[in-house]
């Protein structure tokens, strides 16, 4: 059944409109201000919106701008005699019609009679989205395997709501792309989408980056800085590697989620924010809670709607679909028409892709580069570069009695060597963030430098 939303700060107007619209066979919802109207939009997307131009906390035009023009929602503005010009301006923006107060209810009926029922248009849009899904496209995501269709179903259900989402999946499975798709399909699509890698920010700066700081809050704070929560107001904030966020900051994050208020570093003045949170991790979040990496209360607050992203090895022929998409992008960028030889396609389909979609994309780019400018096919290059050499080993031996710090150091350095010095790959193999790996390497270098200085001192003393 078609649904109408009526937005007006005058109660009598709302009730009169609701009665006449209900007679025409539509269900109705009402709101007295912009805030309540946005809540109603989240609860149920209407087919028709009737809104006063002047509202206590904004204008009807603000509400109109919240709606995706592709949604098929019809928009009718209500205005007083003195603001007919504003109503005409709204028509130019795309509103279907306008009503002048006092409202002529017969005119309301005539508008309803000639308005195309947006339900029909939404059905057409739904059909179009269904076709795109069958072709393997859903927002920014790509893949038509059964497991991905399940992910699409989950995203389509939760995207229009205000619920927090927890994305769980191995590194390289496309968690940020999934978060961007959630944002694009939400009512916040016209506002900012900001992505934050919690493991890539120094622990000393992460609070300032998240909440901002005032000038003079600490050494080097020579100007006021707006943090992610302030810049993402009205939009979506994506917190990747949430388990890498310091525990003490998780407490403050929980407070923001519960109250919608935060304070910049260096001030006691609270700032209100309206942000939808999407969190992601490549760990088992429940295990992270047991290990003390993630607060239990924060986990429950973020895990309102969990979505698991499948690894590429479970997605069947999505490998070929993704690889072709990456190759098409390269062909478009460089004006070429290269294709995959059958042997390369077969090799890609049989590989496990431990680095998932990210690894596949890197492989396609490598095969494209190695093919040469005159070839119409990509090169047949190894799926992985061999790291085996005389001095590389597949295992390390740690004698009994070795301290945990020393064992940790040996394992990290040996893994980095085995990965050819590629820190991102070494971090993935070790199951730690890239930031953690960098910090450990800095510590090892500083320790070596201290040992070297002490050695020089002893030598000088002997001489």
TrEMBL record:
Sites where 4-aspartylphosphate occurs are at 52
Output this protein's name: Sigma-54 dependent transcriptional regulator
A Pfam family annotated for this chain is HTH_8
Q: SUPFAM superfamilies annotated for this entry?
A: CheY-like (SSF52172), Homeodomain-like (SSF46689), P-loop containing nucleoside triphosphate hydrolases (SSF52540)
Q: Which source organism does the UniProt entry give? A: Paraburkholderia sabiae
Q: Where is the Response regulatory domain?
A: 3-116
Which InterPro entries does UniProt cross-reference here?
A: AAA+_ATPase, AAA_lid_NorR, CheY-like_superfamily, Homeodomain-like_sf, HTH_Fis, P-loop_NTPase, Sig_transdc_resp-reg_receiver, Sigma_54_int
Q: Which UniProt keywords apply?
A: ATP-binding, DNA-binding, Nucleotide-binding, Phosphoprotein, Transcription, Transcription regulation
Does Transcription count among this protein's keywords?
Answer: yes
- Give the top-rank taxon of the lineage listed in the UniProt record for this protein: Bacteria
Gene3D superfamilies according to UniProt = 1.10.8.60, 3.40.50.2300, Homeodomain-like, P-loop containing nucleotide triphosphate hydrolases
Question: Ranges for the Sigma-54 factor interaction domain?
Answer: 141-369
């Amino acid at each position: 059944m078609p649904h109408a939303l009526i937005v007006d700060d005058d109660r009598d107007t709302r009730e009169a409109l609701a009665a006449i619209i209900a007679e025409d066979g539509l269900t109705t919802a009402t709101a007295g201000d912009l805030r309540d109207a946005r809540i109603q939009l989240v609860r149920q997307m209407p087919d028709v919106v009737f809104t006063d131009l002047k509202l206590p906390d904004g204008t009807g035009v603000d509400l109109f701008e919240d709606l995706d023009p592709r949604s098929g929602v019809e928009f009718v503005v209500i205005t007083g005699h003195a603001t007919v010009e504003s109503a005409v301006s709204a028509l130019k923006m795309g509103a279907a019609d306008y009503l002048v107060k006092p409202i002529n209810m017969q005119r309301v009926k005539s508008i309803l009679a000639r308005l195309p029922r947006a339900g029909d248009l939404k059905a057409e849009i739904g059909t179009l989205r269904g076709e795109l899904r069958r072709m393997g496209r859903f927002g920014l995501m790509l893949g038509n395997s059964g497991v991905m269709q399940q992910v699409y179903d989950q995203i389509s259900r939760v995207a229009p709501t205000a619920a927090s989402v927890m994305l769980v999946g191995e590194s390289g499975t496309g968690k940020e792309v999934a978060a961007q798709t959630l944002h694009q399909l939400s009512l916040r699509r016209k506002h900012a989408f900001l992505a934050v890698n919690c493991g890539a920010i120094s622990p000393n700066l992460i609070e300032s980056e998240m909440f901002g700081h005032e000038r003079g809050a600490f050494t080097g704070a020579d100007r006021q800085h707006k943090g992610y929560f302030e810049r993402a107001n009205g939009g979506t904030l994506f917190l990747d590697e949430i388990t890498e966020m310091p525990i003490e900051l998780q407490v403050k994050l929980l407070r923001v989620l519960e109250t919608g208020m935060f304070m910049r570093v260096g001030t006691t003045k609270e700032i209100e924010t309206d942000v939808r949170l999407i969190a992601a991790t490549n760990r088992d979040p429940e295990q992270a809670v047991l290990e003390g990496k993630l607060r239990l209360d924060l986990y429950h607050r973020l895990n309102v709607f969990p979505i698991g992203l499948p690894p590429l090895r479970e997605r069947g022929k999505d490998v070929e679909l993704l690889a072709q998409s990456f190759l098409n992008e390269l062909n478009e960028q460089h004006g070429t028409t290269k294709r995959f030889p059958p042997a390369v396609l077969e090799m890609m389909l049989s590989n496990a892709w431990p680095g998932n979609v990210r690894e596949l994309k890197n492989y396609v780019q490598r095969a494209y580069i190695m093919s040469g400018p005159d070839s119409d096919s990509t090169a047949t290059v190894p799926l992985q570069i061999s790291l085996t050499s005389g001095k590389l080993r597949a295992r390390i031996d740690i004698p009994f009695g070795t301290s945990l710090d020393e064992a940790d150091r040996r394992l990290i350095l040996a893994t980095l060597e085995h990965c050819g010095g590629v820190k991102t790959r070494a971090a993935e193999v070790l199951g730690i963030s890239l930031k953690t790996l960098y910090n450990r390497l800095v510590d090892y270098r500083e320790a070596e430098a201290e040992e070297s200085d002490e050695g020089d001192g002893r030598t000088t003393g002997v001489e």
